[in-house]
Amino acid sequence: MASIKGSAEVVVIGGGVIGLTIARALALQGVRDVCLIERGSLGGEASFAAAGMLLPQVEADAQDEFFNLACQSRDLYPAFAAKLREETGIDVELDTTGTLYIALTEHDHEEIQKRYDWQTRAGLSVELLTATEARELEPCISDTTRGALRFPKDIQVENRRLLSALANSVKKLGVMIATQTSVHSVLIEGNRVRGVQTSRGPVSSSVAVVAAGTWSNFIETLPQSPIPAIEPVRGQMVCLEAKPQLTRHVIYSPRGYIVPRQDGRLLAGSTSEHAGFAKCVTAGGISTILRNALEISPAISDLPVVDTWAGLRPWSSDGLPVMGPCGEIDGLFCATGHYRNGILLAPLTGELISKAIVSSQR
Ligand SMILES: Cc1cc2nc3c(=O)[nH]c(=O)nc-3n(C[C@H](O)[C@H](O)[C@H](O)COP(=O)(O)OP(=O)(O)OC[C@H]3O[C@@H](n4cnc5c(N)ncnc54)[C@H](O)[C@@H]3O)c2cc1C
After folding, report:
1. What is the pTM of this model?
2. Cys-Cys crosslink for 266: which of 242, 250, 287, 334, Cβ 3.0 to 4.6 Å?
3. Is residue 23 scored above 70 in pLDDT?
4. Strands 332-336 and 208-210
5. Residue ranges lining ligand 1, Cβ < 6 Å
6. Is 331 in contact with 186 (CB distance < 8 Å)?
7. Contact yes or no for 292/258 (Cβ under 8 A)
């Protein structure tokens, strides 16, 4: 394999949604020499496995800092999607129908009432529906539905099309992309980044961004790594075929969800398993997903299963993303640990990290 170009202004490690979005944002801000290094192919890991839901409100119990960031990122999506389409011609299928969160037990019903109360007090967009109103909106939901919340601003994007659009955009913007290339270590001298060592040779650079998802800790930095511990949390998914489509909204319950795609796929998810790096689909996983999807809508029982897959979400011990300058080392930045929200948080992560890098270089 040919050796890699020897130097770059910024090296981004990892070509998932986070690395791609950061590389694009850097190029858009005028950083001319960005190098994106991906071990496999672009967008082949967690970002590909995701369901593409952009749902900060659905599961939120309080208006904390994370909630505010998540809403901010969701609200960037319409402009983000339009700009990507303009740049690449790719429609990322941002579907703004909204999300229905249904209550199927008495306990679920109490929970949705509490969520409705705090979110209306906070002035957020949320509608409380009776079971009849919810079924009028989406006739496929279970007869046992006791009520529902509708979140008009919690929407979805086709994450695989998003990855294609981002990959296309960074190429057009002149980012140098090295796939099938692993970064082994970030080279640090004193307390400054000097470059990275890859499977195709060294790249010298004064800035390195670790965006390697759940594998971020495998990149050697210092004997005592400044990158907080990131662990894999496996998520499995079942893909059904529904032609005509069964639902217009994303339908969520406290135990599972179904996501309708424009092409007739209906995604059902997911699991959250601490099972190491084994990215496999299991009998138990599929059975749990289908049980929870059937609880939402018994109508799915006749649909063909057309695909299954699994992905590894990058999880930090507090469940929050790890973003920004890292370990007081000049030029070292981290953008990982996005756990269940990497697609949602991508546009904001791109903006925040690229701005932090550009301002650190002034
Ligand atoms: C089943 C499932 C459903 C999900 N649903 C949603 C959802 O609905 N909404 C949402 O917002 N989020 C969702 N997520 C979470 C989301 O997918 C992740 O948070 C997001 O993809 C993380 O992006 P990333 O770029 O950090 O990681 P990844 O996509 O995993 O990318 C990391 C990349 O780094 C590369 N890499 C690793 N090590 C190296 C190295 N040494 N050198 C070079 N490259 C390296 C990898 O090959 C990989 O391509 C879901 C996840 C799963 C698994």
Report:
1. 0.98
2. 242
3. yes
4. parallel
5. 13-19, 37-40, 44-47, 49-53, 182-183, 211-213, 215, 218-219, 235, 237, 269-270, 311, 313-314, 336, 338-344
6. no
7. no
